[in-house]
Design brief:
By secondary structure, this protein is of the alpha+beta class. The chain has 2 domains: 144 residues, Jelly Rolls, CATH 2.60.120; 251 residues, Nitrilase/N-carbamoyl-D-aminoacid amidohydrolase, CATH 3.60.110. 17% of the residues lie in helices and 35% in strands. The chain is built from 8 helices and 24 strands. The strands form 4 sheets. Strands 2, 3, 5, 8, 9, 11 and 12 form a 7-stranded antiparallel beta sheet that branches. Strands 17-16-15-14-13-24 form a 6-stranded mixed beta sheet. α7 links the parallel β20 and β21. α6 runs parallel beside α7. The radius of gyration is 25 Å and the shape is elongated. The relative contact order is 0.11.
């Protein structure tokens, strides 16, 4: 146990007398078993005093199970920054979190969480939960609580650099023209806003260049990415550059992650190609990488990815704090009939705010036509918006934002821990075409 902390009490709990599971103290552990009904829900509660506000604590336990089909569904750990009400799992005044499953097999799980005690916290409670199963049992180790050093995350200034709507050079364009145009915009953004992260639009290097991308795609790194590498190095920022990338015998629609040293730290290859790309020889990507950086975890999507819910979901599932979307437009935010495109800002905002909310991340969007480029926080609030009249827009995002739902739970906790993946088999069935069948 952490120095200065004291175990005040160990008691059983349940939301209702009829839901109480079978409980027993065992040598070195605590047993929770089904009561024979599917209403079973309850377990053990441990309350500790001596918590120091501002101190980070790691809470860890191990649970072994028997005769439970889906232990991750049935067995949970909850952490509260005070003693919770006896007959409630959540309240309206106490901050609470889930312990996270970090390892284990079918019959064993390790649950763990490292969190900073909020202002005013004096006690910490840990609850073990057995729910939803009419049979089976579990054996839990006592909570292991250790004080740790945890540096608070720093605010991150995110900038979408696009230029003004209609402000790009006219006439036949070359890659060199685009480098000059977007390079100048990035320099201006760095001088005026000192951003930590710059996002450029889709295929910024070769947008408007005549001919097939198979003819004008270039490698990364290469001379064409060098200007942006030098800018990143000079201003100690990260730049995400959209381009058609030549990689051996393949061409990708890529988002290239340039780090503050000027080196390329990673690449995202567009997974869902637009109709015009699908048969052009451009190769689709095969994953949704998320890159660990000093700013947080960053992932990417490109254009048509926006209209496939799995794209942002996979970036979220891979742990991103930021999703950077380089995009021409989302076809759902356009006309629903044949003809010249008609951009609908209301639908655009609804789509993009939902991406941020559903995946509890900050969404940065750089739209080629400028209008609609924005920065959205994980509440779905638009922090910065380009109406088409700005060369760039930016906002500062607090990763340690403290956003909570009305009942004291963290939005991120609820968003991810409510999931029941064993029920989502249809999501990965390659022959499932939804309402098309």
């Amino acid at each position: 146990m952490a120095k200065g902390m004291k175990l005040e009490s160990v008691e059983t709990w349940s939301a209702h007398p009829n839901t109480a599971p079978k409980t027993a103290r065992r040598r070195g552990g605590y047993a929770i078993a089904a009561n024979g009904t599917r209403t079973c829900s309850g377990g053990w509660e441990f309350v500790y005093s001596g918590v120091r506000p501002g101190q980070a604590y790691r809470v860890r336990t191990e649970v072994r199970s028997r005769d439970i089909a889906h232990p991750r569904d049935v067995l949970l750990g909850l952490l509260y920054w005070d003693r919770p009400p006896r007959n409630q799992v959540v309240g309206q005044s106490i901050w609470w979190h889930y312990l996270l499953p970090v390892s284990g097999g079918r019959d064993r799980m390790v649950l763990e969480r490292t969190l900073r005690a909020p202002a005013g916290a004096r006690r910490l409670a840990v609850r073990y939960v057995f729910r939803w199963a009419a049979r089976g049992g579990s054996s839990w180790a006592p909570p292991d609580i250790t004080p740790v050093t945890l540096a608070p995350p720093k605010p991150v200034t995110v900038c979408a650099v696009t230029g003004r709507q209609g402000g790009r050079p006219k006439g036949p364009l070359t890659i060199r023209d685009n480098i000059a145009y977007y390079g100048a915009l990035c320099r201006a953004a760095c001088r005026r806003g000192r951003p930590d992260l710059i996002l450029l639009p889709e295929i910024a290097l070769d947008w408007g260049v005549a001919g097939s991308p198979l003819d004008h795609a270039v490698p990364a790194p290469g001379p064409e990415t060098g200007v942006f590498a030098a800018l990143a190095r000079k201003h100690r920022c990260r730049i995400l550059l959209g381009m058609h990338e030549r990689a051996g015998d393949a061409v990708f629609n890529s988002l290239v992650f340039i780090g503050p040293t000027g080196k390329i730290d990673g690449k995202y290859h567009k997974v869902h190609l637009a109709s015009s790309e699908s048969f052009s020889g451009v190769q689709p990507g095969d994953g949704f990488p998320v890159f660990e950086t000093e700013l947080g975890r960053i992932g990417g999507n490109i254009c048509m990815d926006s209209s496939c819910a799995e794209s942002s979901r996979m970036v979220g599932l891979n742990g991103a704090d930021f999703l950077c979307l380089a995009i021409m437009g989302d076809h759902r935010a356009d006309r629903f009939s044949v003809g010249a495109p008609i951009y609908c800002a209301d639908r655009w905002k609804a789509i993009q705010r939902t991406h941020a909310l559903d995946n509890q991340l900050c969404l940065a969007i750089a739209r080629n036509q400028a209008k609609g480029s924005c920065v959205i926080d994980r509440k779905g609030d638009i922090l910065a918006w380009n109406e088409g009249d700005s060369e760039f827009v930016q906002a500062t995002v607090e990763l340690d934002d403290g956003y909570r739902s009305w009942n004291g739970g963290c939005f991120r906790d609820v968003n991810w821990m409510q999931r029941r993946p064993h029920l989502y088999g249809a999501a990965v069935d390659e022959f499932n075409v939804g309402s098309l069948r």
